[in-house]
Amino acid sequence: MRAFFYKTAQALYSNKSVVVYDWFTSDWFDEKIRNLFPVFADIDFHLEKIDVENFSTSFKYLEWTNRLEDIVYFFANTTKNDSTYCLEGLLLLSSIFERAVGNVYLLRGVTVPFLLRDLLNTSEIASIFGKVPVLFAQILLGTPKSLNLRNLLWHGFPKNEELYPCYVSTLVLLLNSFGYILFQNNISKEKIPSRPQMTNLKEFSHLLLTHNNLPENLNISLIKKRLHENPYLDNQLKTFDEILAHYETKQNGRFILLFLPQFEHFMRKYFCDKNGMPDRVKSAESDAFYITLDDIFEFRLKNNDINEIYTEFEEDILVFYHDLFAFQDGPRIRDKFSHGEVNFEDVPDEFVTILFTLFVLILYNTQIKREPNILCTEFIPNFKSYNPVFHSNAILKCNILSLKQQLEIVPEYDNSSVTNTVDFSNIGNLIEQLENHSKTMLKNFRSDLHETFAFQKVPSLNRPKIEVQIMHIFNRIIKITTNVNKGLRNNLSAKLDLFLKQQLHARQRKSYYRMLTFVPLLIKTFKFINCIITFYTLKIFQYEEIVDENLTLRFFKKVLQCMEKLESNIILDKNHWDIINALIEEIIESKKCKQKKTDL
Q: Tens of pLDDT along 46-69?
């Protein structure tokens, strides 16, 4: 290990060129890369002598990465002669390196920089690993002026034959060397903060399959045939054959690792063709931004023209893509995988098939000659349409329907002695007003509101700003209402248990009785709130105009404010029923005020 550091320092600080370049310029990096190549080759030569059985012993300082099993698995299942050895090795090791160094950063820093190049530039990382090792990592992976292997690989630019196996050997030794430095500094794996990995891809898969009729398996021989017919895959076919092989052998981690950058490059070629940018397909210069997956699926181009992807593809396919790659509450699989947040063992078969299904749909849409209905009969027989799962609108719809179900369950409580001890004045009037408001809203509705809402398709792409604001407030109100309803029922159950055991003192019994008088009012309030949000959400989903959007926004902000206060007053030891009564009155008065000015 010391010899490696010594040779690296020699290559970095020696000046074999007649010209002396300024530090960290493109010319400076070019010179250092040339100086380092003998070091790369020497590392590769020594790594060849290590067999798989002795790999863990020879590289015993890889434990700090928390991904030793995946590293060993890769080297146990590949050889340098494999057609994607360099691609897979560098993709895997660069993502592991980024995640592991980010964890080490938390020993001295607070928020891990999102980009690897920014992470390697921090004083915290330099102070832990030292100047020479960090500079070596920057040259190999982390700045656009250097080899920049991490970005070039994860954005799908190089082919396997354009890479050297010595890069893989060098990167695994770099990981081991960083582990050795930590060992020398008495920083064990247990001392390093470990951010949680993504382990819920199975849950994501379940949600996607529950809401959509997606296939459980795909016809690989047919897909392979279509791959070879697609004009945009001409120079990627060898790699895609390997991707298909990983799919068939259920090597799920390797499948996604290899698929994601190749998918991006395939889409880049299609995007550039359709938007008249042929010169941007291979643009990966250090002094220019290149087209990434985010750019490819943006609705508008940099010049504000509409992206032709949105005219070429069906909306359902675009929504499907955003569910897997873009929506914040979804798996965001490319971001998670490229930044090292997913272990191979946590990739289920179902998710791989779902991801590949999306690709098959896109593949069909990029064919030059598309035969009518060929997709339905050949690839995905039952695919009719796609329902978004992870957009905030889709989540709101699920939460609204879930809350309605919860509110239909009558809470258990004993109010046999309540009428003689507590004053019911005003509560009955409030319940009546809530019921009247609900009837007013639904008077022109031909069928059940929630039934209509349940079958309404959810819009999710290119939504107007005012809608995003309103939906954000709706989501918060429904979430709080759900929590308050759950809290109320838990409170009722706990108090009833104490009441039946005669463990409530006189003052506690009085508070309990008063609580029981409010139960019908609270349930009616929750139903009213759920009803009015359902009504407005349905109008938005059906693209109907909302009269005075700003007034509507102010009204629901008021409701949100009241529900936040309500939440803080309904807990086991703090039942402020007078405050709760006043808050419910405030909601009703706000509704009355709005009703005078608008359609509701």
A: 888 887 777 777 888 999 999 999
Its pTM stands at: 0.88
- Rounded Cα gap, residues 287 and 295, in angstroms: 18
531: three-class secondary structure by DSSP: helix
- Give the pair of three-digit tokens for residue 344: 């191979």
Which band of pLDDT confidence, cut at 50, 70 and 90, is reported for residue 409? confident
* Backbone torsions φ then ψ of 31, nearest 5 degrees: -65, -45
Q: Which residues contact 554 (CB under 8 A, 6 or more apart)?
A: none
Q: What are phi and psi of 540, to 5 degrees?
A: -65, -45
Distance from C-alpha of 391 to C-alpha of 329, rounded to nearest angstrom: 7
Contact 511, 575 (CB under 8 A): yes
**In a 3-state reduction of DSSP, which class is residue 464?**
coil
User: Please, which residues bridge with residue 571 across strands?
Assistant: 574
The C-alpha atoms of residue 407 and residue 404 are separated, in whole angstroms, by 5
Which one, of 4, 149, 6, lies nearest residue 89 by Cα?
Answer: 149
pLDDT for residue 19: 45
3 state SS of 347: coil
Choose among 490, 518, 482, 331: nearest CA to 401.
Answer: 482
How many separate helices (H) and strands (E) can be counted in the chain? Answer: 27, 2
Do residues 466 and 553 make contact, with C-beta atoms less than 8 angstroms apart? yes
- Tell me if 373 sits within 8 A of 445, measured CB to CB: no
For residues 155 and 23, the model is more confident at: 155
Q: Kindly report the CA angle at 199 between 193 and 204, in degrees rounded to 5?
A: 145
DSSP-based three-state secondary structure for 51:
coil
Helix (H, G, I), strand (E, B) or coil at 235: coil
- Encode pLDDT of 282-340 as tens digits: 755 555 578 999 999 999 998 999 999 999 998 999 999 999 999 999 999 999 999 99
Report the DSSP beta bridge partners of residue 574: 571
pLDDT for 431 equals 65
The values of phi and psi at residue 157, to 5°, are -80, -55
224's tokens: 């392979």
Cβ atoms of residues 308 and 274 within 8 Å? yes
- Provide the token pair at 438: 């609900």
- Burial label for 226, CB within 10 Å (0-12, 13-18, 19+), is middle
